[in-house]
Design a protein that fits this description.
The protein is mostly helical. Helices cover 69% and strands 0% of the residues. It has one domain. The longest helix is centred in the middle third of the chain and has 26 residues. The model has no long low-confidence stretch (mean pLDDT 90).
């Protein structure tokens, strides 16, 4: 559980940093929401039948996960609590101003980055844990590159 919470916090911080970089601001709740999305998207790779699934399929599933989390958290944060963290009501096809098709498509194309970030964070957190590899055990080689994930994404692997 400690590792999952560490992963959640690390991915949440990455999400907040990216949001500040691209949007110019974020909200403390995004640490929780972004981390949850990261952990749930990363869980795709932990299910054996999806471990070797094409990255495009993982991206579709990941984008759907993010949209569901975004919709539920948006209903709580924005509509119920009135925090106004985001508002997509001016976007075509929006659902209650909390999600919209354009951002769903954006999440689809960002998903290989999210998958790589979660796998890399997982590797960094677990790689040198002696309880996983035993005393003197050898951690796995370095994680794969972001370029290789997008290569697989665009080539359907």
């Amino acid at each position: 559980m400690k590792r999952i919470l560490t992963l959640w916090a690390a991915l949440g911080m990455v999400y907040v940093a990216l949001e500040v970089l691209f949007r110019g601001r974020s909200h403390p709740s995004m640490l929780i929401v972004g981390g949850l999305c990261g952990v749930l998207v990363g869980a795709i790779n932990q299910i054996p039948r999806f471990y070797r699934a094409p990255v495009v399929l993982q991206a579709v599933i990941g984008a759907l996960i993010v949209l569901v989390v975004e919709f539920v958290s948006g209903c709580v944060l924005n509509l119920w609590l009135g925090l106004n963290v985001w508002d997509y009501s001016n976007q075509p096809g929006n659902v209650l101003g909390q999600i919209c098709p354009a951002f769903g498509l954006l999440w689809f194309f960002i998903m290989p980055l999210a998958i790589w970030a979660e796998d890399t964070a997982r590797w960094l957190i677990w790689a040198y844990d002696s309880t996983v590899y035993g005393r003197g055990g050898k951690p796995p080689d370095t994680p794969y590159s972001l370029k290789s994930v997008y290569g697989d994404f665009f080539h359907g692997r």
